[in-house]
Design a protein that fits this description.
This protein folds into three domains: about 60 residues; about 60 residues, no CATH class; about 230 residues, Ribonuclease H-like superfamily/Ribonuclease H (Nucleotidyltransferase, domain 5). About 45% of the residues lie in helices and about 15% in strands. The protein contains 15 helices and nine strands. The protein has a five-stranded mixed beta sheet, sandwiched between helices. β4 and β5 form a beta hairpin. α1 runs antiparallel to α2 and α4 crosses α7. The longest helix is centred in the C-terminal third of the chain and has 32 residues. The protein starts with a helix and ends in a 9-residue tail after the last helix.
Amino acid sequence: MKHRKAVTSEVQDRYIKATKKGKAKILDGFCTTTGYNRVYAARILRLKVGKVIGYARMGGRRIKYVIGKTKKKRKSRPRIYTYDVFLALKKIWVVFDFICGKRLAPFMAEAVAKLEKHKEINITDKVREKLLMISASTIDRMLKPEKDKQRLGKGRSGTKPGSLLKSKIPIRMFSEWNEKKPGFCECDLVGHDGGNSSGDFAQSLNFTDIATCWDETAAAANKAQKHVFRAIKIVSARFPFGIAGIDSDNGSEFINGLLLRYCQENKITFTRSREYRKNDSCYVEQKNYSVVRRAVGYLRYDTEEELDTLNELYLYLGRYNNFFIPVTKLSSKTRTGSKVAKKYDKARTPFRRVLEYTDIDDKIKRNLEKEYDSLNPAELKRKITKLQDKLLKLNLLKQTARKETLVNEPAYGYIKG
């Protein structure tokens, strides 16, 4: 290409000054040397320095291309966020469950202070200063190569309707619920059938407070009323404030006399969502994935040891999510034609949201602050990861044992002896 350009610049002056017959001879030799098409060769030899050869659109602007015009070199800027900043950012991102930049940026100052207090990171003053000024978009851009690309499968609904008490349990109406007050919760079950819905398998009961986003989870052996009710009592006891309302789906595990009497005795508002309207329970449905599925996946858990491991994991997971994982809430939604513009508030942890409410007793807040001071997010993350690995090993051992049993069983119709 360089040789062709050199030949073109050398021949061009002679070609422009030559007569018509001279131009034909020069063109013959030029085509033989360069291998260009004759029409194309004549065109580039006719071009003069400074002549506009075409236009293009780029980002809404019209750009013209000029012969002989040198391209402007982009001014190089010194890199602000160096490799040591990236390493510190990556470690913080891993400790706080790989959250996005919009949630991590407002929480960065608290995250750095907490990890430095427990000596989980060792950074210089310069790196700390850069971490505190980093924007959400820069966080996402720097961590893009490190993003987890694993894709999990989708679950299936295993809800069976409980119709006997539907008339006694009212459908939830938003006017009857004070969602701005802590204590009004949505609940749901997440099944761990591993794609095989036959037999008994573990169920995770998920409770989400709408006002503060506080979330607690407990595992039950199956969907029997007594097991689910026991899990409800465990979850209720873990909430830092009293539960004022429970909203469930129409499954028989919730729509039963046991839970109805419990709510009546404890003066808890008990409501249910409309049939086939998952968006009625949008808060807990979102947490079903972000809390339960992301933590324990889609495998089948049906043994007692797996159930105990799940409950131990949820004990640490509740503290980890509620004290150290910031969440955003939808503040407004505006429809303009076919487009919907959504605005979210500043990302804050459920713990910080609880401290903002005047309805919650100061003694509860002081107890939460003491618990927060004693917790190390990196240590909680390590314990959660250890229990997740244990679940995977238990599941693998179970699958191996079942395969060996199938191999050793005699074929159908074969009789020994």
